[in-house]
Design goal:
Blueprint: E1 3-10, E2 13-20, H1 25-33, E3 51-54, E4 57-60, E5 73-75, H2 87-94, H3 107-116
Parallel strand pairs: 1-5
Antiparallel strand pairs: 1-2, 3-4, 3-5
Length: 117
């Protein structure tokens, strides 16, 4: 098993970690970097629970290789509203959008992208 160094920006902070050969971004973020906000749902790219923004575009982290974020900007739900609530978080609260909350971290990324179109 070969390890590959990956340097990237996660939620505005420079990161460097090793990814296993063929490791998906979801597993890398959760186990390698410690960001537990992207969730494992279906593992097939259908549910969106693992959605993250890579250079401002939504990506399903269960389908993306960790090494693909080399030198790129990754944003997860953990990076939203660090100083104060993000407008998407406020909208979710105002409209009672969250249910159990498991898939909620992937929703702001996909909804925010749709709103920009």
């Amino acid at each position: 098993m070969a390890l590959k160094p990956v340097t990237f920006t996660l939620n505005g902070e420079a990161k460097a970690a090793f990814s296993e050969d063929g490791q998906n971004l979801l597993d890398f973020l959760r186990r390698g970097v410690g960001d537990l906000s992207p969730k494992f749902g279906c593992g097939q790219g259908a549910c969106g629970a693992c959605t993250v923004l890579v250079d401002g575009e939504p990506h399903l982290s269960c389908l993306m290789l960790a090494e693909a974020v080399q030198g790129r900007r990754v944003e997860t739900a953990a990076g939203l509203g660090q100083a104060r609530l993000h407008p998407l978080q406020e909208a979710f609260m105002e409209r009672f959008a969250a249910q159990c909350g498991y898939c909620t971290p992937g929703m702001p990324a996909t909804r925010g992208q749709a709103a920009r179109r």
